[in-house]
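DUF2505 domain-containing protein, pasting as requested.
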Amino acid sequence: MAKSIHENLTYPGTTVDAVAALAVDPAFRAAVASYQHALRSSLAVTPTANGNSVTFEYVHGTDRVPSFAKKLVGDEIPIVQQETWRGDRADVLITIAGKPGDMKGTITLAQQGDDVVQTVDLTVKVGIPLIGGKIEDLIAGLLTKAARAENKVGVKWLAGEWQD
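C-alpha cells follow.
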C-alpha cells in the first residue's frame, strides 16, 4: 500500500523566483525547523548544471507520536529531505534514517496572477507488514502539516514579517 499527499499552497504577491530562493536559504530553512519545534536542523546546497541539489536534515522528538509508532522510531525522528531543483520544479525524496520506507514526489511552483502556487505531490510508502498502513497515514499527516507550516513561515518571510 501507499498513501498520496496533494497540497496546493499559495504565496501571495510574489514571484516563482522568490519562492524558489527559499529552498536554498539556510536562515529560512532554520526558521521553518524552529517553527516546527525540530530539535536540530541543517541545510546543504550544491549547485548543479541545471539548478540545485538541496539536502535538508532535521530531527523531531517523539512527544506527539502515538505509542505504537514510538516503538519503531525511538526518542528522535531524523528526517532527510533531498530536493533536486530545476527551475520551478523539484524531485523530492524524504527518508527517515535507518527506517523502512520513503516518501517520493515533486514540488512545483506556478505563477498565477500576482501569486505563486506551490503544489506538493508525494507518495508515502512504508514496508512494514500489518501496521505499515497506519504508519503511512501518520507520516502523510505529519508531512502535510510540515508543508503547511513551511508555507506559513514562507508567506511571512517573503512579506518581511517573520519573527522567530
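Note for the archive: The radius of gyration is 16 Å.
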